[in-house]
Amino acid sequence: MTDAAELVRRTRELLAAQPPATTDRLDFLKARFDAGLAWVHYPEGLGGLGAPRALQAVVDAELEAAGAPDNDPRRIGIGLGMAAPTILRFGTEEQKRQFLRPLWVGEEVWCQLFSEPGAGSDLAALGTRAVRSGDGWVVNGQKVWTSSAHLARWAILIARTDPDVPKHKGITYFVCDMTDPGVEVRPLRQVTGEAEFNEVFLTDVRIPDAHRLGEVGDGWRVAQTTLNNERVAIGGMRLPREGGMIGPVTKTWRERPELRTHDLHQRLLKLWVEAEVARLAGERLRQQLAVGQPGPEGAGMKLSFARLNQEISGLEVELLGEEGLLYEDWTMRRPELVDFVGRDAGYRYLRSKGNSIEGGTSEVLLNIVAERVLGLPSEPRTDKDVAWKDLAR
Description:
Blueprint: H1 4-17, H2 25-34, H3 56-65, H4 77-90, H5 93-105, E1 110-113, E2 129-133, E3 136-143, E4 154-160, E5 171-177, E6 183-188, E7 197-208, E8 212-213, H6 219-235, H7 246-255, H8 262-289, H9 297-320, H10 345-351, H11 362-373
Parallel strand pairs: 1-4
Antiparallel strand pairs: 2-3, 3-7, 4-5, 5-8, 6-7
């Protein structure tokens, strides 16, 4: 078993062999991956050492103290938080070796082709079709709300391969090359003015069967690994005290006493406490992850994240009064990442409206918490045993 002392030794060996001050950033990250110090809980040869997940903090602390570069996790968050754990669990050995190293070092950006305009919040009702053709598949359909599709080389994709069975059973999970013919990415301009999201049209896109994850028709089970990790990645990110959305509003409160009122004070105190409770709950969730896969508890964290962000950003706009009505820039652009804290209050207010939709709508997540966490009876569903092709649309 690799312990903390052994990880410190290995990390210092890496730093001695690849001094951060004189080593190219990408070369350092590749060397870190090859040394098993990328994600220590992954298997040897895949960026890890099979060590306990909790020991990653030991490596990170040594590297940060030495001024070593990171892999810009916000830019490649979909790959790190969603694609990688799915590939690790369901991918073949060849797939793991092909995808995980360039994913972790940031050479290749990933996106997620799940949501569809015709399925709404009912993801299992998706209609994008994948039809077997020789040693591969031909895919046709449309995906929507695809973050980073304009930057991505690869996408995790679910498509319907059997319309004659109930909707959850006829889905298969693929890895799609976003540079292939037939993949068209169009920007979706949001209320913020940016086009951080995209819609993706797939027209006779050929995907080799070697890029299928899991068994044919078992895509819904594979997708649950992705979705559970997505909710943890969104709602359970590590933050310092007063990190995230609560930070800017508390800073304004301290620096602008002329804006204070008794009512705003009471509301800020309540939200500060709730933000701190959510932060500590996230720490507990990450400790649970250290000994297993994420479960439905991540849905609760993501629910809390969305509600708090919307309430805090609303309070911030009120606190600023007339200034809160100003908006810095509504220029159409396609950013590489979302920056809540580095923008103005108006941006935070508008962007947070999407938090209750992205990563699973709050209404769907409430059902997940009710049924899978609290054990309440499921809502009656009339479509569970109906073939997808016979569903009303």
